[in-house]
Amino acid sequence: MRISKTQLALTTGLVVVLTAGVLLAFRMNGPTARTTVTAYFANSNGLFVGDDVLILGVPVGKVSKIEPQPERAKVTFWVDTQYKVPQRSPPRSSHRSW
């Protein structure tokens, strides 16, 4: 059985389009580079694992762990590496109640 030039061109085009689609989907939904940060809070009431981490109201990461300690709470979270968090920036926890 012979493959015509039209069939070959269509097959090649389909493979190229599918490959580009898979690469684009991976880039959009694939793993992102993250920076893990640990902060200590005197009060972690209302803060939950999975909550968004915000910089100027923009979600840039998520809370990954909260560990209660005798005098404070140790909160571990990650931030996408495209956002820079100054080493000495004071952590704040603000919760909105609707």
TrEMBL record:
<dbReference type="InterPro" id="IPR052336">
    <property type="entry name" value="MlaD_Phospholipid_Transporter"/>
</dbReference>
<dbReference type="GO" id="GO:0005576">
    <property type="term" value="C:extracellular region"/>
</dbReference>
<feature type="domain" description="Mce/MlaD">
    <location>
        <begin position="35"/>
        <end position="88"/>
    </location>
</feature>
<dbReference type="InterPro" id="IPR003399">
    <property type="entry name" value="Mce/MlaD"/>
</dbReference>
<dbReference type="Pfam" id="PF02470">
    <property type="entry name" value="MlaD"/>
</dbReference>
<protein>
    <submittedName>
        <fullName>MCE-family protein MCE3d</fullName>
    </submittedName>
</protein>
